[in-house]
Amino acid sequence: MNRFPVLRLPYVALREVIESTDKSDVLNLALASRKMCKLIDTTRNSVSMKKLSQDDIDKLGVMDRYNITRLETLHCSEHVRKELEVNISKEPSLTVKTFYAENDIQKSMTFRVHVDFAEDRPVWNQKVMRFGNLDVPVASESNDTVHTLWNNSDCGVGWLCCHFFQKFDLKRFSSLEINPEDVEYSEFSTILRSVVDLVKETPEGPNLQILRFGLLTAEDSQYLFDGVKYKDIIVMGRRIQQNSGAFTCESSLFLLGDADWFSLENLMSTKCEIIILRGSQMTNDLIKQVLMHWMDKKLEKLAHLSVELREEVDIESILSGLSNRTGYVLTRTKESVTIRRGDGKRAEILIPKDESEKKTFKMISC
Amino acid sequence: MSVENAPVVDVDEAAIPVEKKMYYRFESNDKKEFRVSELAIQQSETLNRLVEAMGYTSEDVENKPAIAIENIDGKTLKLVFQWCEHHKGEAIPVDDGSVPKIVEIPEFDAKLMDIDNGLLFKLIWAADYLNIVQLLNVSCKKVANMAQGKTPAQLRRVYLLPSDEEDEAAKRAAQEAQDPRAREVEEEFEERKRQGGNSFF
């Protein structure tokens, strides 16, 4: 191979070489050594988010964005934050977001890698992209999105997740979005489980969003929630009959959009600080039992509960459960009723203000 | 005009110039002499200022010794002057601020630079020293093109770039060479650490 000792050039010439090099090549050059990267950043063809303008960043292709994220990771750059979002659906994808923020300056860079089944794509317009040491065929791309082709898309998602975790030194998935609509179920299930396995290895859980929850099998639902901590959970879609039964989850926020299947047992087994249930079939009688469980110190993690009942909230009916209890103090105001337990912990039950809130039971525990 | 037909000539092979314009005489560090037209010299900011400052007449050019360029050899200087003669009269390019810089290598320049990397390296040094903007642009573009489509590992080989580990080792070696006690101190420190000592001093 013909070699050229570029570092022995005078600085003006070296700068000229760097500034004449295409961005993709200069990024690979910056990845060749730390010293070279520092030199490159003294020129106008810089490769760090600190020096690149948002306009420059927006013009970059997926591979360049990937390489910049790698560089920022390698050099442990200050003021740079990275996030990985995983979408498991008919078209699974991974999205890497990199943010730069210093004083008033903020820049961001995103790239999305779709994981497609190779047989579904024509061969003639394929290119190859190199992720680490693996050449991955690519069917089509735009500035921030690329469709990668895999013989097994479940392997693709798992491999890319591990690769991004390692190369970008990520500590957690920032979000996991799941939509089982129109999927080939066994493949979907394999992808789901491989990603959940990775989530379990991270100290902090991601945000979880599920659409069409009813299409998820009971087994996958259990795999998704059992023993896995999430930050916020948002679930949309009714759970079908066969999936009803045991349900537990652990998160900071749990929002259930179509909670008609959600039972008192389900509520009692969740370990969430904020629980919001919309469209539930719960009644004042069930809420009375919730309050009794709180009195019995069985919902200690709960800080905020908001439940849309199937009937209008009847505060007196709910409070009637306290009639055979002692050791608490009840305070009433126009807006709320506060119950202070013997151990000093309080529950504030908000009185619905208007028509729109009349079916919503709200309780704040502190 | 082809590279072979460029008007730069070694003095021993020189024919008398047909043009009436002044031709300056330059000598490389290995005593090769070249005659270069006044217009071609304008491509080099360094040489142009030099000849302006010297204020030579036609007689001076013939009678006084050739202007010595002491840090460029004859082989390199021949390429430089061939390039200057070919591009004489052309405007010196002004940086338009585009990044990466858009530089096209003309056919003549490509043939001129169809040389081994050792000579290309010397040509770039010469273009930088003589401040020949466009020659520096095209020669550096040729070096930049060597990076096309290469992986970081391949680029380390092509450009002879030390890896981070090699850079670290070189840095340590340089520090040790500067302060011979550094190694002793480091070894002593390591030894104390092995013995479980909390304090070094």
Describe this structure in words.
- The complex is a heterodimer of chains A (366) and B (201).
- Chain A has 366 residues and is an alpha/beta fold.
- Chain A has a domain at 306-366.
- In chain A, 30% of the residues lie in helices and 28% in strands.
- A 16-stranded mixed sheet of chain A has the order 4-5-6-3-2-1-7-8-9-10-11-12-16-15-14-13.
- In chain A, α2 crosses α3 (34-40), α2 runs parallel beside α5 (62-74) and α6 (153-167) runs parallel beside α7 (185-201).
- Chain A starts with 10 loop residues before the first helix and ends with a strand.
- The mean pLDDT of chain A is 91.
- Chain B is mainly alpha-helical and 201 residues long.
- Chain B folds into two domains: 11-145, Potassium Channel Kv1.1, Chain A; 164-194.
- Chain B contains ten helices and three strands.
- In chain B, α4 (74-86) packs across α6 and α6 (117-129) packs antiparallel against α7.
- The N and C termini of chain B lie far apart (74 Å).
- Chains A and B meet through α1, α2 and α3 of A and α6, α7 and α8 of B.
Taking all Cα atoms into account, the compactness measure Rg of chain B is 25 Å
Order of helices and strands of chain B: EEHHHEHHHHHHH
* Total domain modules of chain B: 2
If interface size is counted as residues with C-beta under 8 Å from the partner's C-beta, which chains form the largest one? A-B, 33 and 39 residues
Q: Termini separation of chain A (Å)?
A: 71 Å
Number of helices of chain B: 10
Radius of gyration of chain A: 27 Å
The general outline of chain A is elongated
